[in-house]
Amino acid sequence: MSSQIQGRYFGARGALFRLYILTSFLTLVTLGIYRFWAKTRIRKYIWSGASGDGDSFEYTGTGLEKFLGFLVAIVILAVYLGVVQMALFYFGLNLFVDPQSQGQELAQIGAIYITLLAVLPIMLFAQYRARRYKMARSRWRGIRFGMENGAWGYAGQALAFYVLNVMTLGLLNPLATFKLEKYMADRSWYGDGKFVQTGRWQDLYAGMKHVFIGLGIIVVSFFLLAIMAAASGIGGAIIGGIAIFVGIIWLLIGLAYYRVYAFNYLTRHKVLDGEVTFDARMETGQVLRIFIIGSIIISVLMGVVFGVIGGVSVTMNQALLAGNIPLLVFIAALYMAAFLIAGGLSLVMITQPVIEHAVNRLHVYNADHLNTIQQRAADAGADAEGFADALDVGGAI
Description:
By secondary structure, the chain is α+β, with helices and mostly antiparallel strands. It has helices at residues 13-29, 35-49, 63-90, 102-136, 151-167, 173-185, 209-232, 234-268, 284-315, 317-321, 325-360, 386-391, and strands at residues 4-9, 50-52, 55-59, 138-140, 143-147, 188-190, 193-197, 270-272, 276-280, 362-365. Among the domains are: 65-132; 207-268. The radius of gyration is 25 Å and the shape is globular.
């Protein structure tokens, strides 16, 4: 093994697209049950496409363990939410009745927010467990990755940092980003080698510059909008509106810049087993180009597809209104197929190219030390992302 490794990604768009369409079709005909196997097969393909020093990564998760984990999570969530609803009912709050007065309507809205807040800790718990499961089911050169148990601690810290972030209007977002990543990284392993997140959270403020510029443009524009609208009427309002639009676009680009900057910084300041270091060189411009070009192409293609389906529906309007069941099923199938194609295009034109860019721009230094790392015992505590699948969080590719 060389002392330096550069990541390589070899996944092909056509093969991944065909796999996505096939697994999505199987998910449809099994009424959603196959989705656990579908995600597993897609992950296996993407993992195997990432390589370091000629050795590909391996994903060892199974659809069955994800399905069983989902069933367990559903039961636990049902019991938990049932207890929450009983507590709300005890205090006179019921989500399932029509409010008879404004006071009852406000109480019902309050009950909805209480229910959502009650689910939030479980969602944060699920995010940690999802990452732990993916780590536990990932291998490179036959050596397992792993992650210590600590989901509830992560959920508690995340809640505290999110509250702090809201109270400071986002000014402490770098603190939350750094501390939460450090919490997870410091509990991660490759074989018997432990990861450690080094660095300073204050350094992430350099990545926030475009966010602050965008927010500044928006705030100033609102003040100018009020002044110019009063002074010059519709012309001032148009100028102010354009300035606000520019500020919003700048803010969105700034958020993308921050995510890329934070990923690069946090990766560069990770250390494995006290010796192995990393360098990430993702470029915000390239990520934005992938997203924008991919979105435009997908929008045009799907506009054509949905236009054709709409035209077919119009020409058969009389038969549809008459309740022709086979024709209704046929039109519904066309729309479902169109949505499947859109999902597949998004995967191969946006998601996979971003992964490819990230992998190809990753470097590992002092890689010779990896030869000294030994195998790690299998992690039997990973719950196969059951809660992440049940709540649809943290379980993405």
